[in-house]
Specification:
Strand order of the largest sheet: 1-4
Shape: globular
Distance between the termini: 8 Å
Number of helices: 7
C-alpha cells in the first residue's frame, strides 16, 4: 500500500473517530457503513479475492471490541450516563462505540498495520495512547464517563487492551497474514 493510501486511510480513520465520538450513533453508523463500503470497493478494484477473509478479519476485531467494551462497562471502569444494561450486570457499549470499532478494524489493515510488526513498541504505545483516547473520548462525549479513580480505571482498560492486541497479533500471524501482504 502506498504512503498516500495510508495517509488517506489515517485521515478517514481520525475523522471517523471524531464523528463517532461527537455525532452519536446514527450519524456514526452512516459514516462507518460508507467507510466500509469504500474500503471493500477499493479491494474489489484491486482484484483482491480475499473479501471473505477481509470480512472475517473485520468481524473478529469488531466482536473482540464488543467483548472488550462490554467488559470495561460491566466491570465499572466506564459507565454510561444513559442506561443500557442487559440482564442485571452486563452493560453493552453504545452503538457509536461499536461503529468506531468497525472503523478501527479497517484502519488496522491499512494505516495502523505497523502495530503488528513490533509488538513491544505497540504495547508501550498502548500504555500512552489508549488512556489518552478514552480520556479524550469521555470528555468529548456526554454519554460515557470514566469511573473514579481515573488512573486505576484507565490502567485496567489499558491492560485489557494489551491482552486484546496480543490476541490480534497472534490472530494476524496465524490466520490473516495473507490479507496483510496484499
Amino acid at each position: 500500500m502506498s504512503t498516500t493510501s495510508k495517509l488517506i486511510y489515517a485521515i478517514a480513520f481520525q475523522t471517523g473517530w471524531f464523528v463517532c465520538i461527537l455525532a452519536g450513533s446514527w450519524i456514526s453508523l452512516t459514516y462507518a457503513i460508507i467507510f466500509l463500503a469504500i474500503h471493500l470497493w477499493i479491494l474489489t478494484q484491486k482484484k483482491c479475492m480475499q473479501l471473505r477473509k477481509e470480512s472475517l478479519w473485520i468481524t473478529s476485531v469488531v466482536m473482540g471490541g464488543l467483548i472488550l467494551e462490554t467488559l470495561s462497562f460491566s466491570a465499572g471502569f466506564l459507565y454510561l450516563n444513559v442506561p443500557s444494561t442487559l440482564f442485571e450486570r452486563l452493560t453493552l457499549p453504545p452503538l457509536w462505540l461499536l461503529n468506531l470499532w468497525l472503523i478501527f478494524a479497517i484502519a488496522l489493515r491499512n494505516c495502523l498495520a505497523f502495530i503488528f510488526y513490533k509488538p513491544k513498541v505497540t504495547y508501550l504505545l498502548t500504555c500512552v495512547c489508549i488512556p489518552l483516547n478514552y480520556y479524550a473520548g469521555a470528555k468529548l462525549n456526554s454519554d460515557v464517563a470514566i469511573n473514579n479513580p481515573y488512573p486505576l480505571s484507565l490502567a485496567l482498560i489499558t491492560l485489557i487492551w494489551i491482552v486484546f492486541l496480543w490476541f490480534l497479533i497472534y490472530l494476524k500471524r496465524h490466520y490473516f497474514e495473507d490479507i496483510f501482504n496484499v
